[in-house]
Amino acid sequence: MSAVTTAFTKAAAADRAALIGYLPAGFPDKATAIKAAIAMAEAGADIIEVGLPYSDPVMDGPVIANAVHRALTNGTRVADVLDTVGAIASAGVATLVMTYWNPIAQYGVDAFARDLASVGGSGLITPDLTPEEAGIWPEVSARYGLDRVFLVAPSSPDHRIARITSACSGFVYAASLMGTTGARSAVDSSAVGLVERAREHTGLPVAVGVGVSNSEQAAEVAGFADGVIVGTAFVRRLGDAISGEGAVSAARDLAADLAQGIRRG
């Protein structure tokens, strides 16, 4: 059983959804990102997504895109991402890498899987990769015990949802909004239907991402999904902080607020 599966199982046993928090490695700097992620977990996040900074983040909204640019400007590289994952995983937190596929292909699929597993990483979330284009990734991920998390969207027809969910392990990522990532003032109405459609094809947990920014929205999503994914709201809090200590505190406070909301969901 993977660390991700264990996290969802523990959340379900407590009759609640899992909280999944995202931060890009190297933002606002390497050390602060690690401390912030661990603080998020201590405050209630069950799983952490570590973003691998990429120079062309076409699916990311402006908040995350700007943070990724800053991380790259800071000199963040794949080795730093792996260091970040290792530090968070060593704290006992299920940790996934969220990444576009090109950096993995350039690094080498087998080599990246090997190195990710060696530092305690749990798997990859690959927003721009389809199962048909995954090549050796299913075989390699199975060899190293890594989870494969693909995305389903409101525009996905039922046969695509069936194909995508069958290729997943760990959980299914339901992107509840079309377009780029970003916090919203309300949860998209298509989220409930998308989760229901995904559950028709899989017994894996289904987590909803793209748009959640506060405890009320977290409670709403927790009422129908197995997991609540929050990214932009965390990144914004870190970006608004005036110091590393302030960034860690802001991440902790938001995680605690979201966790409280989920327990109401």
Structural domains: how many? 1
Task: Tell me the span between the first and last alpha carbons.
Answer: 26 Å
CATH superfamily: Aldolase class I
**Class per helix and strand makeup:** alpha/beta
Spatial extent as radius of gyration = 17 Å
CATH architecture: Alpha-Beta Barrel
Uncertain segments are 178-185
Spatial shape: globular
State the major sheet: 9 strands, parallel
- Estimate the helix proportion, in percent: 40-55%
CATH class: Alpha Beta
CATH topology: TIM Barrel
Helices, by number, come to 12
The largest sheet has its strands arranged as 5-4-3-2-1-9-8-7-6
Order of helices and strands: HEHEHHEHHEHEEHEHEHEHH
What proportion strand? 5-15%
Instruction: Report mean pLDDT, rounded to a whole number.
Output: 93
Query: How many DSSP-defined strands?
Result: 9
Question: How does this model look, in words?
Answer:
There is one protein chain. The protein contains twelve helices and nine strands. It has helices spanning 3-13, 30-42, 62-73, 78-90, 101-107, 109-118, 137-144, 158-167, 190-199, 215-222, 232-240, 244-264, and strands at residues 18-24, 47-51, 94-98, 123-125, 147-149, 151-152, 172-175, 206-209, 227-230. It has a single domain (3-264), classed as Alpha-Beta Barrel (TIM Barrel), CATH 3.20.20.70. Residues 178-185 have low confidence and may be disordered. It has a nine-stranded parallel β-sheet with strand order 5-4-3-2-1-9-8-7-6. α10 packs across α12 (244-264). It is an alpha/beta fold and 265 residues long.
